[in-house]
Amino acid sequence: MRRARITGTGMYVPPRVVTNAELEALLGTTDTWIVERTGIRERRWADDGVGASDLAVEASRQALERAGIRPEDVDLVVFATLSPDYPIPGCGPLLQAKLGLPPVAAIDIRNQCSGFVYGIVVADQFIRTGACQKALVVGAEVQSSGLDLSPRGRDMSVLFGDGAGAVILEATEEERGVLGFALHTDGQYAFHLWLEDPGSRKRPRLTPEMIERGSIYPKMNGREVFRHAVLRFPEVILEALAAAGLSVEDVDLVVPHQANQRITEAVAARLGLEGKVYSNIARYGNTTAASIPMALHEALMEGRIRDGDVVVLASFGAGFSWGAVVLRW
Ligand code: UT7
Q1: Same fold, 3-174 and 178-328
Q2: CATH of domain 3-174
Q3: What is the pLDDT of residue 229?
Q4: What residue's CA is closest to ligand 1, atom 43?
Q5: Is residue 29 in contact with ligand 1, taking CB distance under 6 Å?
Q6: Per-residue b/e over 193-231, b at no fewer than 16 CB within 10 Å?
Q7: What share of the chain is helix, strand, coil (3-state, %, to 5)?
Q8: Mutate to test the pocket of ligand 1, among 31, 37, 221 (most ligand atoms within 8 A of CB)
Q9: Is 228 a catalytic residue?
Q10: Helix H or strand E segment including 135
Q11: In the annotation, is 132 catalytic?
């Protein structure tokens, strides 16, 4: 049976480290609050003029190199981001050009925190059907240019960071790679985590009043998102494992979306997987679509994943949109 297997990973974060201490005066917050509520100690912020596609180029080059393939071998690009360089066009074409890829298919995915998981499933389907052989799947975000960096925005602005992660998925006939998945969405919760403006419902789409009112910044009902996240993560992980014909006892490592250390720990406890849920949120904060491929890359580099291991990627976020993918390494 034809499957899709990850053969290379890469990540890139901008060099500027922003500690919690730096945010104290700017946002009217404290290091203690941020660490206790989220586990975040620092994050990276890109410089002016750097977009998601720029971070993605570096991560993708590493993934190509680790997979041992050339840019011209890639026949599909899937780019997950909520912070594209421009509203039009998407980041897929920008990345295709910057990497010097042939004029291959490129898809932008905007499922926010679940974007990378959705991206892996899309690429997996293309590979399984034989429509493509080697896919580049990227999650990249520049959040820092879209945050309210005043005390009004402190609840959101302490959480998010910039970064990119990338993987190469290749066709294999072996019993490894993507073994099962589950994807869900429930739009009745759309306004618990959203960004109102600019959007197509308003004429003009952007006004000085929107900027003044702060509706150009993302808003979250944190408690409600938290409550759903700790239920949906375990549920969807078990569902994806069942789809793969496996159970929680088979899991070697879960690489979850890095939203909050307390969510990660609650998920580990609920599944009885303490010590088997990877976390790097302390160093990067929440990098939305980039968080899973960045964490996967670091877990690999740290030797946390070995040949034959069962690895679960799982996400929950805006939409609400959530999902999990089960891989045999
Ligand atoms: O990646 C997408 C998915 N996102 C998530 O999964 C995030 C889920 N939610 C969370 O992680 C948590 O809800 C947060 C970290 C966002 C917030 O933690 P919380 O424990 O739910 O805090 P809260 O929102 O209930 O706020 C508690 C207090 C409030 O003050 P009062 O009303 O108790 O006086 C806030 O005003 O903390 C205050 N607060 C802050 N204080 C200092 C909120 N943000 C800050 C801040 N610094 N940055």
Answers
A1: yes
A2: 3.40.47.10
A3: 98
A4: 155
A5: yes
A6: bebbbbeeeeeeeeeeebeeeebbbbbbebeebbebbbe
A7: 40, 25, 35
A8: 37
A9: no
A10: strand 134-141
A11: no
222 lines ligand 1 (CB under 6 A): yes
Q: CA–CA separation, 41 vs 297, rounded Å?
A: 20
Please tell me the distance between residue 97's alpha carbon and the centre of ligand 1 in angstroms. 40
Please, are residues 81 and 110 in contact by the beta-carbon 8 Å criterion?
yes
Q: Kindly name the residue from 113, 132, 192, 297 that is annotated as catalytic.
A: 113
pLDDT by residue, tens only, the chain of 329 residues: 999 999 999 999 999 999 999 999 999 999 999 999 999 999 999 999 999 999 999 999 999 999 999 999 999 999 999 999 999 999 999 999 999 999 999 999 999 999 999 999 999 999 999 999 999 999 999 999 999 999 999 999 999 999 999 999 999 999 999 999 999 999 999 999 999 999 999 999 999 999 999 999 999 999 999 999 999 999 999 999 999 999 999 999 999 999 999 999 999 999 999 999 999 999 999 999 999 999 999 999 999 999 999 999 999 999 999 999 999 99
Q: Which of 237, 151, 143 is nearest to 195 (CA)?
A: 143
Instruction: Tell me, in angstroms, the distance from the centre of ligand 1 to residue 29's CA.
Output: 11
Q: Is 259 in the pocket of ligand 1 (CB under 6 A)?
A: yes
As given in the structure block, the two tokens for residue 230 are 């700790």
pLDDT attached to residue 28: 97
Q: How many CA atoms lie within 13 A of 249 on its CB side?
A: 0
Kindly state if the Cβ of 260 falls inside 6 Å of ligand 1.
yes
Domain assignments of the chain as residue spans, ordered by start: 3-174, 178-328
Fold exhibited by the domain 178-328: Peroxisomal Thiolase; Chain A, domain 1 (3.40.47)
Residue 317, ligand 1, Cβ within 6 A: yes
pTM summary value: 0.97
- Residue 251 structure tokens: 């899991």
113 is catalytic: yes
